[in-house]
Amino acid sequence: MAQGxxxxxxxxxxxxxxxxxxxxxxxxxxxxxxDYPRLEIICVDxxxxxxxxxxxxxxxxxxxxxxxxxxxxxxxxxxLGARHAQGTVLAFLNNDxxxxxxxxxAAVTALRADPTVAAVASKVLDLDGEKADFxxxxxxxxxxxxxxxxxxxxxxxxxxxxDTAKDVLFATGSAMFVRAxxxxxxxxxxxxxxMFYEDVDLGWRLNLRGWRVRYEPASxxxxxxxxxxxxxxxxxxxxxxxxxxxxxxCALYKNLSDDTLAKVLPAALALTVRRATARGELDPALxxxxxxxxxxxxxxxxxxxxxxxxxxxxxxxxxxxPALAEARAEEQAKRVRTDADLLPLLRKALEPAYPLPRYLAxxxxxxxxxxxxxxxxxxxxxxxxxxxxxxxxxAGPAIRAWNIADVLSREHDVRLVxxxxxxxxxxxxxxxxAASRRELDHHVAWADIVILQGxxxxxxxxxxxxxxxxxxxxxxxxxMHLELLEQGRDAPDDIREADLAGVTKVLDAQLERGDFxxxxxxxxxxxxxxxxxxxxxxxxxxxxxxxxTRSLLAVVPFGLSPEPPRxxxxxxxxxxxxxxxxxxxxxxxxxxxxxxxxxxxxxxDLLSTECPxxxxxxxxxxxxxxxxxxxxxxxxxxxxxxxxxxTGKHVFFNEGWVPYDERQNWLLDADCGVTTHFEHVxxxxxxxxxxxxxxxxGLPIVxxxxxxxxxxxxxxxxxxxxxxxxxxxLAKALKRCLxxxxxxxxxxxxxVAVAERFTWPNVLRPLVEFCRDPRPxxxxxxxxxxxxxxxxxxxxxxxxxxxALVRSYLAEGGPSELARRVKGRVLKLARRGLRRG
Length: 837
Description:
Blueprint: E1 11-17, H1 21-32, E2 39-45, H2 52-59, E3 64-67, H3 73-84, E4 89-93, E5 97-99, H4 103-113, E6 117-125, E7 132-134, E8 137-139, E9 145-147, H5 159-162, E10 166-168, E11 175-179, H6 180-185, H7 198-208, E12 212-223, H8 227-232, H9 239-255, H10 258-279, H11 305-334, H12 339-346, H13 357-369, H14 372-375, E13 381-386, H15 396-408, E14 413-418, E15 432-434, H16 440-446, E16 449-453, H17 456-459, E17 471-475, H18 480-487, H19 493-513, E18 516-519, H20 522-535, H21 540-545, E19 553-555, H22 572-576, E20 583-587, H23 597-610, E21 614-618, H24 632-643, E22 651-653, H25 663-667, E23 672-675, H26 681-685, H27 690-697, E24 701-704, H28 708-716, E25 719-722, H29 727-739, H30 741-757, H31 760-763, H32 765-772, H33 795-836
Parallel strand pairs: 1-2, 1-4, 2-3, 6-12, 13-14, 13-16, 14-15, 16-17, 17-18, 18-19, 20-21, 20-23, 21-22, 23-24, 24-25
Antiparallel strand pairs: 4-11, 5-12, 6-7, 6-11, 8-9, 10-12
Helix pairs in contact: 1-2, 9-10, 9-11, 10-11, 10-13, 18-19, 23-24, 23-29
């Protein structure tokens, strides 16, 4: 391949023949004239009587002819051809169709442009190129796929209807492309369909598993509609009607969810009967005694074949139910999309499709009585799982999980689950439950989407195995491994190292498994992108699907309530005995090793000599989660305050934890908020959630430099940013925020707009949008494989490569280097052989 030349996928085109040698030969010759570099043409003869196979083989020797032992139908014939195909892309073309010169090139371009597209639907016109054959697909609620705008002159259609690429439910089998690896993953077309709707069923299943089917108007084929069928059957035989009716029911049964199927199937069966009687113009009162009692009549009633077809189709459907039940179980177990997700692809699902008066009347009755209009609109099931305590006293992870559940519950059925034994949640508009590790699988099985934090993936290993297809959102807003570097400082070296390795392994597992990730800032996004790259997740497939990676990793900061804080009871002044005219600095959160409250204590000591009314309040010293023990820095902080004589005078410690729904009372009693930390890597990527409470309450902010919020405070002028471990500068900053009235008021006014940006509904928008249209990450779609791998080297090329290596090794280190390399190669091949054995 020349430098700069793009490798093209190999394409295998499968054409099925049955008693149509003339059409097939013309089709194969047209294919052989296409200027595509890596093209394989396969013709499957479906046991045609006569000399069809011999004629085709002689007329187009460049095509590979496969003779089926019996007539497998279109579905089975295509599957047989696919099993013999070598291409990474399969194309199916009816024998009565002809390809445009760019039919393949345009489809391959669409497949290569987006790794989430599994199949390409060609634009199919009549043989003259004047009328539409396939420019869009639709599906009725009773399972019948149809070609929208079929037989309509192209000149009469709006350009957007036929000349714009779009997602569709299915591609017509008369001219379509599909990734060979994905076709194999899904088992190809359903052989039992024989012909008709096998393409609808395949597209339906692709979409349910998270793949996309893309209509590409530049990939054009010309088709003599029903040319094949008219050569082997008569329009009034009823056979085509039978297959259409039976296969519609089969596709419906396999692919609809339990809830939707329970509503739709009885109505679909009844409508099948009404179509049959309407087509056959049967008198519905023929056997009804209420219509009149006369002499008994026992003579047979003539029934047309078109009417009989509907009744026999239901009978055949019942006969196939055992096998269909197995197929249904597989599809339902592997689906990741809901019926509601696919509703836009159905186009106009309530269209009756048949213009027969009695049929139309029944259609209206059934859709109303069975509630068909609402049947496809079921809400998605989302399970949010946290390891934190869910009580009235919640810390950051629980608060975040709670608000994620709250926002998503407005559109979906949401459960908030904690694996923490401490669970006494306040009232919520969604179910909140505690679950043991053994009970987690029940909630995972229920969910369409699982949103998890912390160590949850290790507690629910089924998400890596039997539920590996489930869509998982990993909330990695807390870089636990960086946090642990500070948290574990006092542990023995070996234990500290082992703990860090364990937490990193937990994060690795999440980053390898997730379909969508949430982080708290752009800084964190850079951190996690690097981590994903190091793990190999940022693959060409993921990158090609979205070079921005925003659809994989979104910034979702911690949020705050959209409602302003309102006092509901006493706050810190009443609880701690602080006077109404004292100036209060609030530390709104826990005291952990990665913070620097010691410098803050010293700053308050300096400030108190000049401003005796200054008061520093620590909101909570004891974490509500009993699994989070007190850290060394908390004790050191209290001892320093005691030593300086500040405790109970200028520094106050709330030994408990303020309930989440009472925190506003403490915030409203403060005059400014503070957060101080050391200068280290944890700071660089941390997201100090307490700062959002300051925003919410309109408290001017004093913060140490170095983290994302320091940038925000500086850029938006919300307070003062100070250097790390500088008590003098910190004292000056506190004084400005507490006593410079004009400066403090300006901070509060600017905070209004900034706070609005950080409300939970706003910050969670990327997650809300993902949950409206969730899909597996591009590299986790089932059956995904390389579309254009490098071609295998010839024997001569291999010899030339080995000789070049020998010369290189000799030049590098002489015979000893050559011997070492050869030995290494032999050992590598031996180990590979053992693994295969």
